[in-house]
Each structure stands twice: as structure tokens, then as C-alpha cells.
Amino acid sequence: MQRKLKAVLATLGVGLSGTAFAQSDVTLYGIVDQSIRFTTNSNAQNDNQVQLTNGAITNSRWGLKGQEDLGGGMTALFRLESGFEPQNGQVDMNRLFGRYAYVGLSGRYGTFTLGRQGTESFNFFGDFDPLTVGNYTGNSWPFFMTIGRIDNTATYAGKFGGLHLGATYGFGQQPGSLSQNSYWGVRVSYDLGPASFGGTYQEQRDLNNNVQRMWGVGGKYAYGPATVFVGYMGGRDATGFVDDSLNDSSRTVTQGSFAQNPRRDTTLFTGVVYQATPALALTGAFYYDDMNNVNGFAGNGGKRYTGVLLAEYALSKRSQIYTTVDYNKVSGGAYTELPGKSNQLGVAVGMRHMF
User: Fold this and answer.
1) For residue 259, what is the domain's CATH number?
2) Chain centroid to CA 191: how far?
3) How far apart are CA 217 and CA 201, in angstroms?
4) What pTM value is reported for the model?
5) Whole-angstrom Cα distance, residue 250 to residue 23?
């Protein structure tokens, strides 16, 4: 599914030691995923919308990764990954490598990397979400609590038998302060036969030292062709990040004091992935959030419910077609998370190719 390019590549080899680079392997990889999506209640007037958009589950991306054997069980590595919109060719996040950009060393005791990387909670729930974190807001909204990816991080990841460990520190980069704009997080999980389970905790501070805390647990169990997922995510956000991320971009939202009234979330999810045939995979997922102090107002509670169905059919090892349906319902203070009515239905068909 990936095409290996043996160095030296002339355009990449400029300024690099020919001897050292010749011993490295560089892999060009990516996914091009495009879907046609129909959405109800897509604006304040509750109009329906049909659009060509990025993939339902796997955001389109391309990247380069490489490694060099340093001997003695030690390996040098790097990864550069960029997201893009195939419908118009635009780069996501206004960054050349907005998804990942890091360099590191790997050995018998784990891997240490430096650069732009995923948060520990994002990495953790990527393994325990039945959708592996969806790509539409309508099927991935709980994971805004994990922040996703952050800059200026030092990360350790280790695997010892069935035990998986992760720890990350994000440098705040502020003169005179180690805490402003900083991040730290940890995760641990364990594989025990067909079962896997674990937990995560992290904190992100803003420039005023207000804190967004996020924690959770997850588990999955494989039984024959089916894998069952279950998880819990909790959050306390005094920065406003979660509300700003979840509020629909078309709404003008009045906000109170996040520092005095931190948003609180209790999110539960479950789902099943069923490999019906070697080519056909069926997924069902359900997400629920009970929230309080929405948008910085004390006692402003709300709820959100989401159901997702996904069918994926493999045309080959590298090409799939799929169809998906998602339904969202909000109540109370959560009304700001949808553009119009308190419910929204999305239906999409798409195709992805991996290289």
C-alpha cells in the first residue's frame, strides 16, 4: 500500500551527505478520499446541501517518512505529512505539513520524537473509536476535546509485549514561563488476547494559564469477524477551546466567562465493526455527550446524540468505495453546535485510494 523510494532522490538529496542518505529508506505514501455528501438543515434557513467534499473517515493526505539504521538496534526516523482537499487542491490548516512533522530516534526501549505530533488522547482514542475518528464534524465531534495535533512537542512511545505507553510534553514557547500555552499528556493500554483496554489523561494551557483537562478510558474486544468498542471521555475546559471548536461556524454566539464557568463534558460511545466478507466491512457507532456550562454560562446544560452507519467495500488492497449515514440531535445549550434546527442528517458515498 506504500511505494518505497530508495534514496538518493536528486531533489531531496541537495545539501545532504551522500553516504549517510544512501543508507536511508524514504517512503512516499498517502490517501486520496473524495465523497459526495447530502446534508439536511445545513444553514440557519434549514436548507439542504449537496457537496463534493473530503472523505467521510479518512482525510486525504500525502506524506514522506524515512528511517536509517544506525546500528546497535538504534534507528533514526522522520515523518512529514500534509492534509489536502482533493475537490479543490487546497492545503489543510494553511500549513505545508499540518498533520505531522517530526524527527526522532527509535530503539529497544521505545521511540523519542520531536516536532508537530498528535496529542496522547487523540492517539489513544484513534485506537478505541469504532470509526478510528471520523472526518466529518457530524461523525467526529467528540474528538475536539483531544485537541488533535499540536506544535512544539517531545514525545515518547513504547511497546513492551502487550503494553503500550505514551507521554508527550508540548513546549509553550513563551519567554519567562514554562506553563503558558504548554501541554502534557499520557496514555497506557494493554492487549490481552482478543481484548484491548486502557486510559489517557492530558492538560493544555492557554496564554492566560487557563487549563483544558481531558481524560478517558476505552476498550475493544474481537470475537470472530466482529469487534466491539466502548469508551468514555470526560473534560473540563476553562479555555473556551472546546466550545469554539464545536459551535457551528455560521452562528454568532454570545459567550460568558470560561475561567469562571468551565465547560464540562461527559461523553460515552460504543460501536461494532463487522467484517461481513473479506471485502465488505460494516460499522455502527453511537456517541452521547452530557455537557454543562456551555459557552461559559453557569448551568447552561445540553446534550448531543449521534448515530453513524458505514459500509466499506474493497475493490482491491488499495481502493475502496463506501457509503455512510450520520444523524445528530442536540438539545439545551448544545443548540449552537448545529446551524439551524436541532437535528441534522448526512448521507454520503465516496471512494478512497491509498498509495
Assistant:
1) 2.40.160.10
2) 21
3) 9
4) 0.91
5) 51
What average pLDDT does this structure show over 263-268? 98
- 183-241 pLDDT, tens digit each: 999 999 999 999 999 999 999 999 999 999 999 999 999 999 999 999 999 999 999 99
Cell for 316? 482491491
Question: What average pLDDT score do residues 33-37 get?
Answer: 98
Amino acid code (one letter) for 268: L
Beta carbons of 348 and 38 less than 8 angstroms apart? yes
Q: Which of 283, 267, 277, 278 is nearest to 326 (CA)?
A: 283
pLDDT at 15 over 90: no
Residue 1: is its pLDDT beyond 90?
Answer: no
Range of the domain at 209: 3-354
The pLDDT score that the predictor gives to residue 23 is 58
Confirm if 237 and 195 have CB atoms less than 8 A apart. Answer: no
Can you give the C-alpha Rg of the chain in angstroms? Answer: 21
* Grid cell listed for 110: 521505545
Total domains in the fold of the chain? 1
Segment holding 137, helix H or strand E: helix 137-140
- DSSP, residue by residue, 138-194: HHHGGGGGG--EEEEEEEEEEEETTEEEEEEEE---BTTBSSTT-EEEEEEEEEETT
